[in-house]
Amino acid sequence: MKRLEEIVEQLEKGELPLEETLSLFEEGVKLSRFCREKLDEAEKRVEILLKDEGGILSREPFSLSKKEDDAGSEIRQDSE
CB of 79 within 8 A of CB of 65? Predict the structure, then answer.
């Protein structure tokens, strides 16, 4: 991740020769894909534990896009 940030900083400066710019861009794309794959893997492994009305815990796959529960309120994590 740090290397990707360094590449972005260098490219944003716009002071590099074309060949070096293209080389850094290609490296950045590869690193970006690698990071995306790692995030996708992590997302698949994360689960949210939910209690149903009877107090029984069930598991639900975690999704970064799920910001609200079924009642429309924000999801909060209890320390129980």
Answer: no
